[in-house]
């Protein structure tokens, strides 16, 4: 068969042409994202493309990414076990550092067993998919992380969303699905973009009363909340009412990877059914060893997390007093809500001019009209650095109109 002599008149645009058009639309909405290159260790100060900046948007909450003990654990594991697991854990990729880390996590969390995944994203999609399927229901908080949303979609279970932290709405949905197959309730414990805490005691009670299962993602609570940093579930003492606890190794634990923790049966099920565990390469030995070292430091030095939370609350209240809209001051995450995506980007740009890096968070990461600067504190920030941020942020957010940002927000809502 010969090719047509000339292109069809309604030929589709080429890939670059079509995608350039899509990108223009993203640009027009003020939602274009670009990568910013960090040229140094990630601590309270970093080099970005040749300039030194104060960093206030890292998840290195406890400053452990540059801790000598953590680095040494990674180096030693690389020397002893090589650079990579080079296989799925179920083939030849299950190595001693993985097993040691899983025992450490199980003991830390006070549960029977744990399973390490290669990322938190994979832990969530794999676990939700392993526990539910067609005929089942997942009930999920509306502000849950994208990896939970994608896990719900991939699971083939029906998905029902409850209003953020609204336990009445959750109760309604649990009653509505009383006749369904398995029902899994999923929430974060400390929410990633708002820094507020879920009412876990109520959620756990309701879930139990309805015979449903509860999965809690402790991505931002692990290492920071609870005895020895074991998380919010441990702080509240409701371990027996939470079936699955997820956490990442990539935030306060200053490594890479993630885990699910719970009963022996749960973990055996995940090993057999979690596709994102089965069909991917195991965690590098260095990452497993580094996370184990971080857990050791966190348990030994609880004052790191304690001082982080005290100082974060103080900063949040100070920003509020300066007229900024800080919707929650309950954790190391302080959402400074600006409103429109363009405005949030403008404030972030003014901060960069002052040598302060805080990324603007825009839709689809957060709901329309709630674009924000998500300030995250590190245990290693000095008081002087925090002062510089508070002054810079206040000036940048108020700049231009000369009115308080709260007044502007109130205007927009009228
Ligand atoms: C960051 C995050 C994840 C993903 O963890 P990674 O290890 O970075 O893939 C999952 N859940 C929540 C709530 C998170 O904030």
Q: Would you give an account of this structure?
A:
The structure is a single chain. The radius of gyration is 23 Å and the shape is globular. The protein is α/β, with parallel strands linked by helices and 414 residues long. The chain contains 16 helices and 13 strands. The longest helix is centred in the C-terminal third of the chain and has 19 residues. The strands form 3 sheets. Strands 3-9-8-7-6-4-5 form a 7-stranded mixed beta sheet, with helices on both faces. Strands 1-2-11 form a 3-stranded mixed beta sheet. Strands 10-13-12 form a 3-stranded antiparallel beta sheet. The termini are far apart. The chain has 2 domains: 137 residues, Aspartate Aminotransferase, domain 1, CATH 3.90.1150.10; 233 residues, Aspartate Aminotransferase, domain 2 (3-Layer(aba) Sandwich), CATH 3.40.640. Pyridoxal-5'-phosphate (PLP) binds next to helix 5. The site of pyridoxal-5'-phosphate has 14 residues, from helix 5.
């Amino acid at each position: 068969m010969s090719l047509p002599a000339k292109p069809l008149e309604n030929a589709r645009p080429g890939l670059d042409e079509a995608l350039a058009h899509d990108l223009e639309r993203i640009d027009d909405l003020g939602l274009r994202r670009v990568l910013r290159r960090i040229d140094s260790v990630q601590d309270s100060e970093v080099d970005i493309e040749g300039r030194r900046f104060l960093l206030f948007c890292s998840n290195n909450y406890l400053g452990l990414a540059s801790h000598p003990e953590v680095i040494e654990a990674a180096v030693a594991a690389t020397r002893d076990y090589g650079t990579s697991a080079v296989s799925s854990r179920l083939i030849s990729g299950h190595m001693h550092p993985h097993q040691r880390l899983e025992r450490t996590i199980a003991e830390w969390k006070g549960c029977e067993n744990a399973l390490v995944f290669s990322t938190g994203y994979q832990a969530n999609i794999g676990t939700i998919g392993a526990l539910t399927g067609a005929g089942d229901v997942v009930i999920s908080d509306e502000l849950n992380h994208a990896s939970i949303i994608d896990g719900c979609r991939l699971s083939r279970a029906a998905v029902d969303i409850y209003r953020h932290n609204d336990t009445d709405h959750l109760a309604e949905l649990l009653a509505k699905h009383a006749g369904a197959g398995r029902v899994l309730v999923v929430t974060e414990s400390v929410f990633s973009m708002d820094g507020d805490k879920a009412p876990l005691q109520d959620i756990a009670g309701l879930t139990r009363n309805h015979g449903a299962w509860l999965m809690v993602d402790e991505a931002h609570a692990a290492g920071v909340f609870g005895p020895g940093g074991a998380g919010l579930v441990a702080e509240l003492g409701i371990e027996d009412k939470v079936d699955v606890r997820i956490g990442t190794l990539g935030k306060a634990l200053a490594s890479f990877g993630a885990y699910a923790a719970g009963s022996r049966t749960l973990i055996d099920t995940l090993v057999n059914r979690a596709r994102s565990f089965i069909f991917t390469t195991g965690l590098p030995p260095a990452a497993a060893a580094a996370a184990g070292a971080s857990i050791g430091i966190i348990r030994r030095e609880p004052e790191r997390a304690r001082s982080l939370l005290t100082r974060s609350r103080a900063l949040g209240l100070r920003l509020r007093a300066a007229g900024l809209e800080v919707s929650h001051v309950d954790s190391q995450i302080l959402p400074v809500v600006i409103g429109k995506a363009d405005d949030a980007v403008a404030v972030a740009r003014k901060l960069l001019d002052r040598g302060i890096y805080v990324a603007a968070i825009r839709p689809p990461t957060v709901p329309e009209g709630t674009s924000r600067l998500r300030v995250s504190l590190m245990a290693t920030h000095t008081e002087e650095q925090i002062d510089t941020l508070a002054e810079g942020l206040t000036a940048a957010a108020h700049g231009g109109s000369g009115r308080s940002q709260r007044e502007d927000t109130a205007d927009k809502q009228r």
